[in-house]
Amino acid sequence: MNLAKKLKKISEKPSSEILVKRYLLDCCEKLRRFRSSDCLAKNLLVARKFLRGVATQKQIHQAEWEIEAEAFGAEYFSEKGARVYFRVDKNISADLIKVRISKGLSNRGSRQHLVEMAYFIDRVFCHVEYSSNWLFTEECEQFMCPKLFVKYFGMAA
User: Fold this and answer.
1) d(CA 126, CA 122)
2) Which of 8, 5, 6 is nearest to 127 (CA)?
3) Which one-letter DSSP state was computed for residue 139?
4) Angle at 56 between CA 54 and CA 62, to 5 degrees
5) 8 Å CB contact between 39 and 70
6) Do residues 137 and 4 make contact, with C-beta atoms less than 8 angstroms apart?
7) Cys bridge to 111: 20, 39, 76, 78, which one at CB 3.0-4.6 A?
8) What are the counts of helices (DSSP H) followed by strands (DSSP E) for the chain?
9) What sign results for the dihedral spanned by CA atoms 30, 99, 135, 157?
10) pTM score, whole prediction
């Protein structure tokens, strides 16, 4: 059984819902090193407050919207094309360099990885806001931390 399937099975227990969300947010926390803007860091705080009942539905919705906008930006600004130099975003450019160096990927590979990462983060925030949204597939597993999984759920990934 893969990690996404194990996590989905765990999340089906109402008593584990918050724990699953905390695990996914901690996975996002580990991805902060690849993101240059402060959007993820700021909105991780909002999401954690929401889980504690301190942030409002409006605040988590705004946070999810900002995360989604950043995912769209990652896709748009990392898209290869003849006019790419007109669409340079300093944060996305920095993110691409971080991914390329850290992961040892080609230019195309780092673009794809960054977009997949941005949409994984967006899926996490969607899940935090709306528990019924289970959007995690096998492709998401590359961003799920097996060590954190063991820490949270006490079983090998």
Assistant:
1) 6
2) 8
3) G
4) 125
5) yes
6) yes
7) 78
8) 7, 0
9) negative
10) 0.89
The DSSP call for residue 95 is H
Tokens of 15: 């008593």
pLDDT tens digits, 81-103: 535 554 567 888 888 889 999 99
Distance, CA of 82 to CA of 67 (rounded, Å): 27
Longest dimension (CA), the chain: 51
Tokens matching residue 48 = 């954690």
41: amino acid identity, one letter? A
R_g (Cα) of the chain, nearest Å: 16
Q: DSSP string of 70-83?
A: HHHHHHHHT---TT
* Length, in residues, of the chain: 157
In this structure, is the dihedral angle defined by the CA atoms of residues 55, 58, 61 and 62, taken in order, positive or negative? negative
Place of tokens 């967006």: 122
**Contact residues for 155 (Cβ-Cβ < 8 A; gap 6+):** 6, 149
Give the number of other Cβ atoms within 10 Å of residue 88's Cβ.
9
CA triple 114-118-123, angle to 5 deg: 145
